[in-house]
Amino acid sequence: xxxxxxxxxxxxxxxxxxxxxxxxxxxxxxxxxxxxxxxxxxxxxxxxxxxxxxxxxxxxxxxxxxxxxxxxxxxxxxxxxxxxxxxxxxxxxxxxxxxxxxxxxxxxxxxxxxxxxxxxxxxxxxxxxxxxxxxxxxxxxxxxxxxxxxxxxxxxxxxxxxxxxxxxxxxxxxxxxxxxxxxxxxxxxxxxxxxxxxxxxxxxxxxxxxxxxxxxxxxxxxxxx
Length: 225
Known about the structure:
alpha+beta; Immunoglobulin-like; Type 1 dockerin domain; four-stranded antiparallel sheet; three-stranded antiparallel sheet
């Protein structure tokens, strides 16, 4: 009798143990899984600026540059050389922090090659493709106004009409005294005003509000022989 009771108790304990084991196992399988927050990776590189173009500014010895925006870039640096080589040692001539264009002024008649890089506070892109331009001489703008005199009165008629002689106005880049020639007098004016930053200075031939070597270039290009 006692053995039967012991057997029943052991069987009951075994069944209970199996039940508890299955319950624990089910809890591990169906239990909720915790989530892991993954921070977004920071950008490790910048794209190269595309679509760089270089065009001579109309009527000026200057170049208009433009390119496509680079995602994430906060500034761009402009590089200029006289040949399409040696870029790795090139020094930027300007930094653009707003927009995707730049005007390179005060140049001479020559060929120029340009490249652009994009920047953030921590990253730098590679060079863009090369854009080149060959500047040509700036033409002299001449405006002439002529008034034809009225015909002479006939047959002892009344007094003739008024006569206005022809007027010729010539604008010459480098002609500081407006005498229609670029010569030593204009050179003297350049020397007197050298370094001036006065707006509208008579010796500021390229209009960049500074009398410097670029104005001397204009003087030499348009020198009257």
